[in-house]
């Protein structure tokens, strides 16, 4: 890696191997989280996402390979003072007020942000006097986000940040995260909502079996799947179309037929020839979901 | 490049460790004080038992100064065991189960602050229980002590929380979440009984008297009994009891640290 790339990366895993007993969680993982970008870490359960995060946060040491957070070991406090995090698995104390949680967490950092400002940005301005245990799931997520922001982080590690949030809160959260990346903060995101990763991430890293199997921009990953999806209303029976050349799959969704194919141009011509009255035609590039299922399929072989 | 790195380093000055310890202790104290399942039994049970056995059902203490002092000494030990055992054991077990320990480890919190704050917090609870017991005993319990005796009893009670912190911590590394209060009660109550805190040792079967030196609570009680009576404890010298209390605190602490580092 060149000097410039090294400076652009906030967190780097190189050839990281980690096993728990006989279970190999990471098998030589290379991963880079760059400044000013949102990197989505994707992969099926057991692919090694949480282990990768554990290593990046200094919760565990790799058996082999190296981990760097701003060029230092994440075990060092000086490295971790530059990060903010939301862990999906963590339940904060029910009997502390939001204001107290903010004060406590901000206290770990040498140069915290003004807390009222953080509260405003996370949308918890009006919740500060409430007990954490009395908040709704969505409000708790927002408090956790505020805690992640309060140390003025240069690297944000967000584990399933939008679980339990309604769409408005989700939008507000992503716009707050965007503001952070625009000022050069690196963001690592894990999410089960692939559509969300597709919409917000700059880069995608796909793990499978403890290794990085694909890495790139969302468009690059999407283009790995050559399939297109044709959607239309037609009188041609499904059974006929499924026998046509180049058709991978046909499904009916209410009035619509959905046809998956790697060659949409040829197929659209044939559809119109067979049914000139065909209407409501749409052709989509397959989404991240399809690309990932392809990658997972390859990874399994 | 160099200048930007040093600017960043300057911006990221380390916060004061003392301030972190203070905040952590304060928040842990508030958190437990506001949890009735902790604060009610820890703060009120020793006082209730003391009033029940030493005042209501007890002998007319006014005529039996030695017994009144004995009960204050043993209930002081009973009272400081709970904050140590529950304060560290149950919270550690819960924090492990709820992922809070992991979060704290990932945050830039100095590694000693978690344990340090919790030990100080339990000592504060122990101090509250100790003062409340002394006030009760001096008023309704008819206990008369010299000023120096009150003071040393207080210090012994607050410092005496340490072996129970270590033991609680060790139990907290072995059990998870909901099981911890049950396990700790299974240690707390039998150990109190076997150490002669609930009933005088002299009426216990010989076997129980013989195994008493195993329990940190017995050693601590010998110290508090010595403080209130100024007589030597039978068998072992004062220094031996201090050593036993400190030794057990260290042993369980080391065991707990080992378990914790394996859980990592």
Alpha-carbon Rg of chain A, integer: 23 Å
Report the biggest beta sheet of chain B as strand number plus sense, adding barrel if it closes.
Answer: none
- Overall shape of chain A: it is globular
Average pLDDT of chain A: 88
The low-confidence parts of chain B are 1-7
Computed structural class of chain A: alpha/beta
Kindly state the number of beta strands of chain B.
0
Structure description:
The complex is a heterodimer of chains A (301) and B (264). Chain A is α/β, with parallel strands linked by helices and 301 residues long. Chain A has helices at 3-8, 49-56, 77-80, 98-107, 115-122, 137-149, 167-182, 194-200, 218-222, 238-243, 264-274, 288-300; strands spanning 9-20, 23-34, 38-42, 64-69, 83-86, 155-159, 186-190, 203-208, 211-217, 228-233, 249-253, 256-261, 279-285. In chain A, the strands form three sheets. A six-stranded mixed beta sheet of chain A has the order 5-6-7-3-8-9. In chain A, helix 5 packs across helix 6 (137-149). Chain A is globular, with a radius of gyration of 23 Å. The two termini of chain A are 30 Å apart. Chain B is mostly helical and 264 residues long. Chain B is 78% helix and 0% strand. Chains A and B meet through helix 3 and helix 4 of A and helix 2 and helix 5 of B.
Which tags fit this structure?
heterodimer, A: 301 residues, alpha/beta, 12 helices, globular, B: 264 residues, mainly alpha
Write the layout of secondary structure elements.
The complex is a heterodimer of chains A (301) and B (264).
Chain A: H1 3-8, E1 9-20, E2 23-34, E3 38-42, H2 49-56, E4 64-69, H3 77-80, E5 83-86, H4 98-107, H5 115-122, H6 137-149, E6 155-159, H7 167-182, E7 186-190, H8 194-200, E8 203-208, E9 211-217, H9 218-222, E10 228-233, H10 238-243, E11 249-253, E12 256-261, H11 264-274, E13 279-285, H12 288-300
Parallel strand pairs in A: 3-7, 3-8, 5-6, 6-7
Antiparallel strand pairs in A: 1-2, 1-4, 8-9, 10-12, 10-13, 11-12
Chain B: H1 2-11, H2 17-33, H3 36-56, H4 65-97, H5 100-106, H6 111-139, H7 147-159, H8 161-174, H9 179-194, H10 206-211, H11 216-229, H12 238-263
Helix pairs in contact in B: 2-6, 3-4, 3-6, 4-6, 4-8, 4-9, 4-11, 6-7, 7-11, 8-12, 11-12
């Amino acid at each position: 890696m060149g000097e410039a790339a090294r400076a652009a990366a906030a967190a780097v895993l190189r050839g990281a191997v980690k096993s728990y007993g006989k279970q190999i969680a990471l098998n030589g993982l290379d991963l880079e989280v760059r400044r000013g970008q949102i990197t989505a870490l994707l992969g099926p359960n057991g692919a090694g996402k949480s282990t990768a995060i554990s290593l990046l946060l200094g919760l565990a040491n790799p058996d082999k390979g190296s981990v760097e957070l701003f060029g230092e070991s994440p075990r060092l406090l000086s490295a971790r003072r530059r990060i903010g995090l939301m862990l999906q698995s963590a339940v904060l104390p029910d009997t502390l007020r939001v204001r107290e949680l903010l004060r406590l967490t901000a206290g770990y950092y040498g140069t915290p942000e003004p807390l009222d400002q953080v509260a405003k940005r996370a949308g918890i301005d009006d919740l500060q006097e409430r007990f954490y245990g009395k908040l709704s799931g969505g409000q708790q997520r927002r408090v956790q986000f505020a805690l992640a922001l309060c140390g003025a982080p240069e690297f944000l590690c967000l584990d399933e940040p939008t679980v339990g949030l309604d769409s408005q809160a989700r939008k507000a959260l992503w716009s707050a995260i965007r503001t952070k990346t625009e000022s050069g903060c690196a963001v690592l995101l894990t999410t089960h909502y692939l559509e969300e990763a597709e919409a917000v991430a700059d880069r995608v890293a796909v793990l499978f079996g403890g290794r990085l199997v694909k890495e790139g921009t969302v468009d690059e990953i999407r283009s790995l799947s050559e399939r297109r999806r044709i959607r239309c209303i037609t009188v041609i029976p499904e059974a006929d179309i499924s026998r046509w050349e180049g058709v991978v799959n046909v499904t009916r969704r209410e009035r619509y037929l959905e046809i998956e194919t790697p060659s949409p141009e040829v197929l659209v011509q044939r559809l119109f020839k067979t049914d000139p009255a065909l209407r409501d035609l749409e052709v989509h590039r397959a989404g991240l979901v399809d690309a990932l299922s392809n990658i997972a399929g390859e990874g399994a072989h | 490049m160099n200048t930007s790195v040093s600017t960043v380093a300057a911006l990221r000055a380390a916060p004061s460790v003392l301030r972190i310890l203070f905040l952590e202790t304060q928040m842990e104290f508030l958190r437990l004080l506001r949890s009735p399942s902790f604060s009610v039994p820890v703060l009120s049970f020793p006082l209730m038992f003391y009033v029940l056995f030493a005042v209501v059902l007890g002998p007319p203490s006014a005529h039996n100064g030695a017994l009144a002092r004995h009960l204050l000494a043993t209930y002081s030990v009973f009272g400081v065991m709970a904050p140590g055992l529950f304060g560290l054991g149950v919270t550690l077990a819960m924090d492990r189960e709820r992922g809070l320990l992991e979060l704290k480890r990932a945050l830039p919190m100095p590694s000693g602050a978690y344990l340090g704050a919790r030990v100080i917090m339990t000592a504060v609870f122990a101090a509250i229980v100790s003062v409340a017991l002394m006030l009760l005993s001096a008023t309704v319990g008819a206990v008369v002590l010299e000023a120096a005796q009150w003071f040393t009893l207080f210090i012994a009670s607050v410092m005496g929380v340490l072996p129970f912190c270590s033991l609680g911590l060790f139990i907290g590394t072995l059990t998870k979440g909901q099981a911890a209060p049950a396990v700790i009660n299974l240690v707390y109550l039998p150990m109190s009984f076997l150490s002669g805190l609930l009933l005088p040792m002299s009426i216990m079967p010989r076997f129980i008297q013989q195994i008493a030196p195993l329990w940190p609570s017995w050693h601590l009680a010998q110290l508090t009994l010595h403080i209130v009576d100024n007589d030597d404890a039978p068998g072992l010298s004062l220094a031996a009891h201090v050593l036993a209390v400190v030794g057990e605190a260290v042993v369980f602490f080391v065991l707990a640290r080992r378990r914790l580092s394996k859980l990592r």
